[in-house]
Amino acid sequence: RTEPLILGIESSCDETGVGIVRGTQLLVNAVSSSMEEHVRFGGVIPEIASRAHLDAMVPTLRAALKEADVTLADIDAIAVTSGPGLAGALMVGVCAAKALAVATGKPLYAINHLVAHVGAALLDESLGAVSPGDLTAGNDGGLVVGNDGGRPGRFENIGALLVSGGHTEILRVGSIAEDVELLGSTIDDAAGEAFDKVARLLGLNYPGGPAIDALARTGNALAIKFPRGLSVPKYMGTPAEPGPHRYDFSFSGLKTAVARCVERFEAEGQQPPVADIAAGFQEAVLDVITAKAVLACRENGISTLLLGGGVAANSRLRELAQQRTRAAGIRLLVPRLSLCTDNGAMVAALGAQLVMRGVRPSGIAFVPDSSMP
Ligand code: KG4
Ligand code: ZN
Fold first, then answer.
1. How far is the centre of ligand 1, averaged over its atoms, from the C-alpha of 85 (Å)?
2. Which has the least CB within 10 A, 20, 124, 211, 351?
3. 129-334 CATH choice from 3.40.50.800, 3.30.479.10, 3.30.420.40, 3.30.70.1560
4. Who's near 154: CB < 8 A, 6+ residues apart?
5. Among the bound ligands, the one closest to the CA of 278
6. What separation in Å is there between the alpha carbon of 357 and the centre of ligand 1?
7. pLDDT over 90 (residue 39)
């Protein structure tokens, strides 16, 4: 094989990930999560995440090398997430990667975490056991809907909707190595964060996304109407004269609306209808993100939309994204879940693209950037 063997390291949030790929072929995706340690706090505690990365980094690296049956000497280059993310958490992965690069003399690539989420879709395995009709959340299957149903040819000019506990962005990817543009993002909470906060208001456990997803299936999404952030003409503008937040998101007003709604029921001595609230809230988030992602694709000549991040597991999001992309003639790609959530394989996948396209390594002088654009 002539394709490069790349080791990827991810530590931007609560997942310690080490992935190994050969070109576009996934060999190993080893992930150790500290989520359990954050549950009782109702959110990721940066200091705990950093410590957990320290504990998990070497064992995860060892496990990945063993599973791939390779040694560090076989690796052609090392790639590591250098931002955006939690500063202390990023530091652990970056220091590990620099140490490995110095010790082995291998080239090192600093990787943008968001672009890596898009890079995950480049792996041959990302669409996995493709079952276009399968909308069940929680399985590890990928999803391809529309047009030829095949893989994205040269993987150029695609749109990406990234939704997780840490980010909510629409990207335009002209070329994964050098032309990635941020079209829109949240101006306050991330979508997953909104799920987690609302889950807490409804008395559900953290992380709240899966709990709301399940509860919403038993509720009526039309019973209570919640606000669609940044969707009014003042922010949207028109195609000719785009408003200041045409492709942006806001979820803090929605979260407050849910809190007020719960309070109203309690003030009247009634049990809040949690299933209807969960369904109405979920619909408000997903309505806006799918509508704006499709709009951004249409207005930027993009015919393929990629979904990434932990919220891509949401069953209603998969359904709505499928309906709306199909209606707009846009192809939808949802990588298998283990590649949608944070992992080292996506970092390695992007590293492999950079190596194959002859991009120069980053050297070892770079510093992690928690707010990397
Ligand atoms: O990508 P991820 O594992 O970690 C980062 O935040 O980077 O995403 C975790 C987020 C959490 O906020 C979680 O509540 C949300 O993804 N999530 C979901 C679902 N599964 C996970 N949100 C909605 N519906 C789901 N089924
Ligand atoms: Zn992420």
1. 15
2. 124
3. 3.30.420.40
4. none
5. 1
6. 32
7. no
